[in-house]
Amino acid sequence: MSRPKPRNAVYAQSGGVTAVINASACGVIETAMKHRAHIGKVYAGRDGIVGILTEDLIDVGAEDRATIRALRHTPSGAFGSARFKLKGLDQNRAEYERLIEVFRAHDIGYFFYNGGNDSMDTAHKVAQIGTQLGYPIACIGVPKTVDNDLPHTDCCPGFGSVAKYIAVSTLEGAMDVASMARTSTRVFVLEVMGRHAGWIAAAGGLAGHKAGDAPHIILFPEIAFEREQFLARVQQCVTDYGYCVIVVSEGAHYADGKFLAEAGTKDAFGHTQLGGVGPVVANMVREAHGYKFHWAVADYLQRAARHIASKVDVDQAYAVGKAAVEYAVQGKHGVMPAIKRLSSKPYRWKIVPVPLESVANVEKTVPRHFITADGFGITPACRRYLEPLIGGEDYPPYRNGLPSYARLRGKAVRRKLKGEYTLK
Amino acid sequence: MSRPKPRNAVYAQSGGVTAVINASACGVIETAMKHRAHIGKVYAGRDGIVGILTEDLIDVGAEDRATIRALRHTPSGAFGSARFKLKGLDQNRAEYERLIEVFRAHDIGYFFYNGGNDSMDTAHKVAQIGTQLGYPIACIGVPKTVDNDLPHTDCCPGFGSVAKYIAVSTLEGAMDVASMARTSTRVFVLEVMGRHAGWIAAAGGLAGHKAGDAPHIILFPEIAFEREQFLARVQQCVTDYGYCVIVVSEGAHYADGKFLAEAGTKDAFGHTQLGGVGPVVANMVREAHGYKFHWAVADYLQRAARHIASKVDVDQAYAVGKAAVEYAVQGKHGVMPAIKRLSSKPYRWKIVPVPLESVANVEKTVPRHFITADGFGITPACRRYLEPLIGGEDYPPYRNGLPSYARLRGKAVRRKLKGEYTLK
Q1: A229-244 confidence digits (pLDDT tens)
Q2: What distance in Å separates the CA atoms of residue A237 and residue A246, rounded to the nearest whole number?
Q3: What's the pLDDT score for residue A169?
Q4: A164, A278, A398, A161: which is closest to B171 by C-alpha?
Q5: How far is CA B393 from CA A95, A396, B161, B197, B405, in A?
Q6: Which residues of A are part of the catalytic machinery?
Q7: pLDDT at site A263
Q8: Could you give the strand order of the β-sheet that contains A244-249, starting from the edge strand earlier in sequence?
């Protein structure tokens, strides 16, 4: 009985990177290398889908095993990621056909696309086009997003680590303010990521355990901002506790949908680029109450903070990468490995496949019952959900005081196609 | 032979708190408790000098030993700190006399004042007044400041940890940007503390090891900002490396002394309160070049980040607290335990006493030979100085995903003086 010749695999990172997306890459690569009967060479798109479109592939086989292993503790996108959303099939079918052309040239039978909502949609469409063009390809989505907004999965790899960073930072920053509030800063504002979903802001709530603990106010994108109510609460906190710590999501907005702060620019996906709601909120408090304030904007630091990654998150990131390959060699396609929670205390979970089409372009926001009635805090149900996700530490190795992170060789795969491809 | 009766000790925290000021407190307290022949009770000012002036003292002896031990890994000021500078002797001699009155009421023979420049000045004056009023008191300064600007000491406890946090954050943030620069953010700006001294900004430079590594530009308060030169360098970096990472000190200013960003408010010491230079620099770049940008302002997170403290820093913070008590029981007074570097590789240091009057109100900034000729980077000499200070990790214990930090009981010492004291 002859077995079919192994086909090659390509892995690509997409969208905003995280502290653990490379752990998923590590899971994909190490597992692929164990399935030589099915998978031949392992390539990666340099700068994600852009590298595939331009036939700029990285030969993963040329990297040391130790470097691949070190991806597990390395933040950012080691192969390069891209904010590049493929247009709809009817708008730019040529882009999808180009992908298939490149796949065909390199005998790619497996496409592992590591990203969020948009990427699951792309992976789904690539699978469809492949079928239509008579080029079967197993497209597996590998979930990743700090926003934690993918449906049908308990959480998204990348979220647990940013949640831990924000919970720890809220705790530490609040202790700082509390210790000096009598003669110095009264109000501290921490701006966190989360455009439409307030999961990261909610994670700040883990810092507090009893009444009076910081954070005293969380501003969610799920709750319309009401200025007077907010300012009254700030004043009450300063009166009652001597200080007030506020965690505000970049997506906080008024009832009419207007963001508290808009930078006025848009990213490649046409989303408004936010930033600066922290100082806006802090100044609002100063104008109303005159309190001395400070504000911090964690920005990229929060999603890159591998130094304080959640062990649960790292384990899950690796597991979805591993499962993606196992699904592919089992003949599954058009699926995403999702995390299914079996119990919260202790936290137990397993990986299950879900169809890409059920994931694509659906956004999971923080449900109302996870937010306190006044809209400013998290409920015990939310805590039960969140707490396991920041569980455990997974420190990287250090050298001369700094984390020792992997750097890839990034050897290019020889091109097979003629001519230059110009990105649309 | 009869020994003199032990006298009591008071410890107070002053100014901006750090990730390791409580490690100094731990050193002071644990050591004081070993010298029962000299030191009776150990008290602490609640909210620093404010607590001493108002006779609001904390009975340290009422805390569990385990809680005192846990101070070593707890950030912020566990006893409360204060931004409260005593006026000059000629302006408000009554404040100093009040301190002596409180000391006398509680038989305080030892005053350990844990702070920066201003606090060393205060401790020095208290010692003088005590002598003039016929109330001898051993005043020992315990150095602390994230700014690293005290003279006659290799470094200041608190600095090593913020330096490590900023170096790690610069490395991680830069990796994030590098991995996505092709289609997304080109310029990333990280704003750090340091009003007059650029030591923290310099620490960001530790993230890079070879040409092209981030950070590509450091803006020091020691170097007058020149817009055109800066913008040209940003453009060159984006052209050469695809992206540009900038670490900017809050104290960055133009040649005429004007800060790049001024919040317009002043703190209790009359210093202009800064904040927001990060977005100012980022917008400057966008207006000139149109690059997509992101910016982060670490603010309090950097000085509270005990989760990524430098082990060297923690050890030194404890050591200066311990030495302060040892000096006091040896009969030394009017001194500060300073750190003397014996060698850089390996880093070896010892504690030596320096007179408070030589420390008070002298500010040590980054010397010109630690900054590259173009003013945008650190030299090898600067790296040799800084690198040992971020050496080693000293992780706190964790519980349910969060650091387990000490919380004091804070039992008040019974008041002995009549009437209320009103702060000036």
Answers
A1: 999 999 999 999 999 9
A2: 10
A3: 98
A4: A398
A5: 48, 11, 10, 25, 17
A6: 147
A7: 45
A8: A217-219, A244-249, A187-192, A293-297, B293-297, B187-192, B244-249, B217-219
Residue type, A223: I
Query: How far are the Cα atoms of B24, B39, B166, B317, B320 from residue B155, in angstroms, in the given order?
Result: 14, 29, 16, 10, 12
pTM exceeds 0.90: yes
Percent of chain A predicted with pLDDT > 70: 96
Mean pLDDT of B50-74: 98
CB contacts of B265 in chain A (<8 Å) are 286, 292
Half-sphere exposure in the Cβ direction for B424 (13 Å, CA): 13
Residue A364 has pLDDT above 60, yes or no: yes
Topology adopted by domain A7-145+308-361+393-403: Rossmann fold (3.40.50)
Helical axes B311-329 vs B21-32, angle rounded to 10°: 40
Mean pLDDT computed over A171-178 = 98
Cα distances (angstroms) measured from residue B21 to each of A354, B313, B406: 50, 10, 13
Q: Any CB–CB contact under 8 A between B210 and chain A?
A: no
Asked if the domains B7-144+309-362+395-403 and B159-306 are classified in one and the same CATH topology, the answer is yes
> A374-383 long-range contacts, Cβ below 8 Å, gap at least 24?
A374/A233, A375/A220, A375/A223, A376/A216, A376/A217, A376/A218, A376/A219, A376/A233, A377/A205, A377/A217, A377/A218, A378/A202, A378/A205, A378/A206, A378/A218, A382/A202, A382/A205, A383/A205, A383/A206
Instruction: For chain B, give the mean pLDDT.
Output: 94
Q: Where are the alpha helices (DSSP H) in B242-372?
A: 277-289, 300-304, 311-329, 356-359
Residue tagged 């007059």 (tokens): B196
Contacts for B282 with CB less than 8 Å, ≥ 6 apart: B187, B189, B293, B294, B295
Q: Which fold has domain A159-306?
A: Rossmann fold (3.40.50)
- Cis bond upstream, residue B4 (ω within 30): no
Q: In this model, does residue A318 exceed pLDDT 60? A: yes
Query: What is the C-alpha to C-alpha distance for residues A409 and A62, in angstroms, rounded to an integer?
Result: 8
pLDDT of A66 higher than 80: yes
In chain A, where the domains are located: 7-145+308-361+393-403, 159-306
Confidence of residue B275 (pLDDT cuts 50, 70, 90): low
State residue B54's pLDDT score.
97
Beta strands in A344-419 (DSSP E): 348-355, 398-399, 402-403
For the domain covering B7-144+309-362+395-403, report its CATH number.
3.40.50.450
Inter-chain CB proximity A276 and B275 less than 8 Å: no
Tell me the nearest-neighbour CA distance from B71 into chain A, angstroms. Answer: 13
Q: Do A172 and B84 touch (CB under 8 A)?
A: no
Q: Which residues of B touch A183 (CB under 8 A)?
A: 47-48, 50, 82-84, 268
Question: Rounded to an integer, what distance in angstroms lies between the CA atom of residue A245 and that of residue B47?
Answer: 19
pLDDT for the residue B263:
45
Residue A172 touches partner B, C-beta closer than 8 Å: yes
Which tens digit of pLDDT belongs to each residue from A330-347?
A: 999 899 999 999 999 999
Min mean pLDDT across A208-222, A241-255, B97-111, B262-276 is at: B262-276
| pLDDT at residue A231, as a whole number | 98
Confidence of residue B87 (pLDDT cuts 50, 70, 90): confident
